[in-house]
Amino acid sequence: MDQDPVPYQKIVFVCVNRREPHETCCAHRESEAIAAALKARVKALGFSRAIRVSKSGCQDLCARGPNVMVFPDDRWYHGVTPADVERIIEEVVRGVQRP
Ligand code: FES
User: Fold this and answer.
1) pTM of the shown model
2) 9 lines ligand 1 (CB under 6 A)
3) Ligand 1: distance of its center to the CA of 15 in Å?
4) Ranges of the chain with pLDDT below 50
């Protein structure tokens, strides 16, 4: 096993867990599109090497999804829609230095 320091200043986890069609999950509420939009905005703003947008499994709050966790900001967004992406990005990039 090797070990390195985490190369990102922030990590954004977007739940993309998909359940059966009749079950509640983030994937049924556009979370894949939200993850893609967050990633695209981070890249467009030049923060790709400082902020990692990563798809996650279930965050155990399915009924309130789509859920997005931001570390180390201690923020957990619920009921996210594609219309919320810009506001989340504004909060995520705050204080981040472009490498
Ligand atoms: S499916 Fe996203 S929190 Fe459970």
Assistant:
1) 0.96
2) no
3) 6
4) none
